[in-house]
Amino acid sequence: MAREFSTVGVVGLGTMGAGIVEVFARNGIDVVAVEISAPALERGRATLKGSTDRAVAKGKLAEADRDALHERVHFAVGLDALHSVDLVIEAVPEHLDLKQRIFAELDRVCGPETILATNTSSLSVTEISVATSRPNQVIGIHFFNPAPVMKLVEVVRTVVTAPEVVADVEALCARLGKVDVTINDRAGFIANALLFGYLNHAVGMFEAHYATREDIDAAMKLGCGLPMGPLALMDLIGLDTAYEILDTMYRRGGRDRRHAPVPLLKQMVTAGLLGRKSGRGFYTYERPGSPVVVPDEATPLATDGALADGARAIAKVGVVGSGTMATGIIEVFAKAGYEVVSVTRGMEKSAKVCEAVKTSLNKGVVRGKLAEADRDAALGRISWSATLDHLADVDLVVEAVVEELSVKKALFASLDEICKPGVVLATTTSSLPVIDVAMATQRPADVVGLHFFNPAPVMPLVEVVRTIRTSPEATATARAVCAALGKTGVVCGDRSGFIVNALLFPYLNDAVKMLEASYSTADDIDHAMKLGCGYPMGPFELLDVVGLDVSLAIQRELYLELREPGFAPAPLLEHLVTAGYLGRKTRRGFRDHSHR
Ligand SMILES: NC(=O)c1ccc[n+]([C@@H]2O[C@H](COP(=O)([O-])OP(=O)(O)OC[C@H]3O[C@@H](n4cnc5c(N)ncnc54)[C@H](O)[C@@H]3O)[C@@H](O)[C@H]2O)c1
Hints:
Elements: E1 7-11, H1 15-26, E2 30-35, H2 38-57, H3 63-71, E3 73-77, E4 87-90, H4 96-109, E5 115-118, H5 125-129, E6 138-143, E7 152-157, H6 163-175, E8 179-184, H7 191-207, H8 213-224, H9 230-237, H10 239-252, H11 263-270, E9 284-285, E10 293-294, E11 316-320, H12 324-335, E12 339-343, H13 347-366, H14 372-380, E13 382-385, E14 396-399, H15 405-418, E15 424-427, H16 434-438, E16 447-452, E17 461-465, H17 472-484, E18 488-492, H18 500-516, H19 522-533, H20 539-546, H21 548-562, H22 571-578
Parallel strand pairs: 1-2, 1-4, 2-3, 4-5, 5-6, 7-8, 11-12, 11-14, 12-13, 14-15, 15-16, 17-18
Antiparallel strand pairs: 6-7, 9-10, 16-17
Helix pairs in contact: 1-2, 7-9, 7-10, 7-18, 12-13, 18-20, 18-21
The chain binds nicotinamide-adenine-dinucleotide.
Nicotinamide-adenine-dinucleotide is lined by residues 11-17, 34-36, 40, 91-94, 102, 119-121, 142-143, 145, 237-238, 241, 245, 277.
C-alpha cells in the first residue's frame, strides 16, 4: 500500500515553491512552508494569496475552498519547523552548494522516515542526495511553472533511490491530479533538456537583432501554437533561474554550445532584470510579480491600419505557381479584397488551381464562415493566366513555385523585365537564401521573403524576410500587406529557417536524439512537452505530421549553414527516412499509423 502523506514541507517560496504549496494545500494536504527570512516569507505568503485570489476571481476556486486551503498552510522561517513532516520539497535557487547545505540540514532536522525531494531543474539529484545520510530516500520531484496549472511532474530517481520511495511519490502525484513520468538523473531531465536549447537560441536571435522580442514570440505562438513565446517564457521562468539551468546543463550535458548561456542573459541578471518577478526582463510588467505586460520604449507603435514607414499602396497582386502554397495564397489575397492575377505554366494547370480555390471557398460557405456573395466576389477578383506578361501592372508579386534556386532565379530575372518599377517582389521560399533570388534582379531593394505557413488560408503567421539589400519601404509594405490579410507578419533576417523553423527543428532533432539514447520513450517525451510546457503536440506526433523527410531536409540546411555540432541530424532520423518511414503520409514514422 502506498504511504500516506498528511503533512509536507516546502522550502523556498519563490516562483516555484509558492505554487507547489498551493498544489498540496488544494489537494487537502497540510503544508509547512519555509523561507529564509521574514520578508521572504511574507513575499511567499503574498504570492500564494495573489494566486488563489485570482483563481477565485476566475471562478475556478470557491471562496470557502480558498480559505480552507490557507488554513492548511503553516508559514515559518527556518528549517526547524519541518521536524515532523512526511515529505519535504526543496525549491531554493539553482545552486548545488546551497541545495547540498539544505539537504544536510534537513537530514538532521527531519525524522528518519521523511522523504527528501528536490525540485531542481538541472542539478544532479545524486549529488544533492549524498549530502544526506539517506540517499535512498532522496528523489527529484520536478514541477512545471506555473505549478498549479501544469499537469506534468518529472519524478527523478537516482541509482540509489529506493523503489518504494519512487512508487510512493508516483502515487502522490496521482493524488495531486498530476501526470508523472519517471526518469533517471540526467541534466535537464526530459522537458528542460528539450526546452532550454530552444530558449537560449531565441535569446541569441534577440541579442543579434535578428528579430524583435514581439516578433520572435509571435512567430512561435502563431507558427507552432505554443502557449507563450520563448522570451515571455524566459520572463516567467526567471532569468536568474534560466541562467543557472543553462549553465548547469552546459557543464553536465556534454558542453553543447547551445546551452552556453547567451551573454545578454548574464548582463540582464546582473542588472537585476530577472523577468516577471522583478517587474522587468525581456518585457516590462505592471509591477514585480505581475503577469501584465505594459508598454515600454521597445514596444512597437500601433499603426491602426495606416500605412507605416513608407509602405506602398498595394491593390493588384500577382501569384506565380500552381501548388498547395500558391493555391492557398491566391485564396487569401482574393478573400481580403485584392485583385489577383494567377500565373501558372499552362491553362490546364490554371484550371486545376481555379478548381482548388473554388473547392476551398465552398468549404468556407458550407461551414458558415463565408457568405456566398463574398465567395463569388472573391472568385470574381481572380484572373487566370499562363503568361508572366500579365504581371506588367501588378503592385506585388508573390512567387510560390518549386523549391529550386535555379528556377526561382530565372523567374525573378523575368519578373525584373516585366514588372513596373516600385513593385515588391516576394518569394515564399522556406529554405533558400532570399538574397540569392534578389540578386537575380536589378532591384534587390524591392525583394523580400513572404513565408506563408501551410495551409495558408488558416495559419495566422507570415514571416517577412528582409535581406541585407531589402529597403525599409519594401519591408514595411510586406508587413502592411500581412496585416491587411488579417495575418501577423513577423520581420526577420535572411537566415536558414527564418524564425520558426530555426527554433523548432533543432528541438525536434534533440527529441529524436533523446529517444535514440534510450533515455525515455516517445510517449513519455510527447507527454512531457504537452503537459509540462503546454505544447499542442509532442515532438514525435509533430514529426510524423510534418514528415520525417521534410524535417531531415530542414535540419540538414540548418546544420550546413550554422555548422553547429548540436544541429547535426540525429542518425535515427536519417535511418527512418532511408527506411521509407516518413510519417503519416507513408502510414509509418515514429509511430505506426496503418490502423488509423
Ligand atoms: N522557475 C521555473 O520555471 C522553474 C521550474 C521548475 C523548477 N524550477 C526549480 O525550482 C527551484 C526554485 O526556482 P525558482 O524559480 O522558484 O527560484 P526563485 O528565485 O523564484 O525562489 C527561490 C526562493 O528560495 C528562497 N530561499 C533561498 N535560500 C533559502 C534557504 N536557505 N531556505 C529557505 N528558502 C530559501 C528565496 O528566498 C526564494 O524565495 C530551482 O531549483 C529551479 O531550478 C524552476
